[in-house]
Amino acid sequence: MCSRQIHETDVISLIVDGNTSSLPHHLDMLIITDPFIIQKCIVQCNSAEFVFGHKTLDGLMLYKPAVHLLPGGNACLDVCAQCHSSLNRNVMPKFALANDLYRGQLPSQFTDLTWVEEMVCARFRYTAHITRLFQSSDPALPNVLHGNTCAHEMNVVSTASVLPRTPSDINETLSVVFVGPGKFRREFLKDVYRIRKRKVWSFLTWLTSHNVHYLDMHLDKTILDQYPEDDMLPGITDNVIEDHASDVSQIFLEETAGPSEHPAELLKVPPSEADEPFVFLEKVGVSDPEGDRLSGRTFVSRALRNLVSDMGNSTLPDLILHRGSTAIKEYKNPELMPVCSPRYGLSA
Q1: 132 is in which domain, residue-wise?
Q2: Are the C-beta atoms of 97 and 1 separated by less than 8 Å?
Q3: Is 325 in the same domain as 195?
């Protein structure tokens, strides 16, 4: 019944008699009541997620792998200690699926969605993404790159009234900084910013039928003509800042300093053909965009270090943020997170 994924925790087994007509252990509070889920899962039978083959349990919002059918028609439920304590007190468990925490299941054909494709389908966006690519300093490996993508929270949220979003809309909040001695090639970004218009349209049409937040969303298929069949995001190369002066090895060592070697340092031979770019990319989130959780001393030390490192002749900015301009409520808005990440959801 729990929406959390907990590893190595003790579970309590609840036995449910297959011959009883009433629900024991106060399980009746887990009955599906959401009209949208009832329509999609029960009436239209689009999902058998809450059908367990046990007449007493069918229709309860339970985690299916935790339901075990026993000989004689009985069933056993695996319940974590926190949920069990709540049930004993006849209180809805805090993390129960039935406590408005069910997010649905993503069909297997969409598990390979790229982050750019998901961004094209998102109603709301509130992050700007900056990708830093470091070209290998080894002359024998010019097509091997490593780097990271940082997601910076913005104080405005871009909203869409028509989907898919246009390439220009997506590019407003994307930037790429290329650091290396060699020449930048557009092929370096193909895998990082991959988009397939057929996949995007298929995902959007699925969302309008299975996601409560997309039921009334207007889809414009003509916008798809601005996207390729299978290539990088159009216009992303216009957001590339090239830095050929900085020391790639030194910057990388400073940004990845740690108790053990960074995985990219172990890459000595390209895993693909010599002419095919290989990009080793990390995804990093920025946790303090407002600057209200870090001490002033930390900010001053960082600023001084950047000032000293920028004493050269370089006039390039550290980062460029392309930002949207349409605001939306951040608080008391339960739709915000689900439609920022549309892959989560039948009903989020």
Answers
A1: 108-304+316-340
A2: yes
A3: yes
Residue 309: Cβ-neighbour burial (10 angstroms; 0-12, 13-18, 19+): middle
Position 167 in a domain: yes
Which domain-ending residue is among 56, 88, 120? 88
What tokens does 302 get?
């960082």
Q: Are residues 128 and 15 in the same domain?
A: no
Do the domain assignments include residue 2? no
Give, for all 348 residues of the chain, the pLDDT tens digit.
777 777 677 888 999 888 877 888 889 999 988 888 777 766 666 677 888 888 888 889 998 888 999 988 899 999 988 899 999 999 999 989 888 888 777 888 998 999 999 999 998 887 888 888 888 777 777 777 888 888 877 766 677 889 999 999 999 889 999 988 888 888 889 988 999 999 999 999 999 888 888 888 999 999 999 999 999 999 999 999 998 888 777 776 776 666 666 665 555 555 555 567 777 776 655 555 555 566 666 656 666 665 555 545 556 555 555 455 566 666 666 666 666 777 665 443
Is residue 23 a part of any domain in this protein? yes
Q: 219: exposed, middle or buried (C-beta count within 10 Å: 0-12, 13-18, 19+)?
A: middle
Q: Name, in order, each residue with C-beta under 8 angstroms of 14's C-beta and a sequence gap of 6 or more.
A: 24, 25, 76, 77, 79, 84
Together in a domain, 204 and 334: yes
Q: How many CA atoms lie within 13 A of 187 on its CB side?
A: 8
Query: Both 299 and 164 in a single domain?
Result: yes
Residue 331, domain member (yes or no): yes
Specify whether 24 is located in the same domain as 153.
Answer: no
Look up the pTM and report it: 0.72
Residue 304, both tokens = 């001084």
- Whether residue 237 is found in the same domain as residue 138: yes
- Asked if residues 59 and 45 have their Cβ atoms less than 8 Å apart, the reply is no
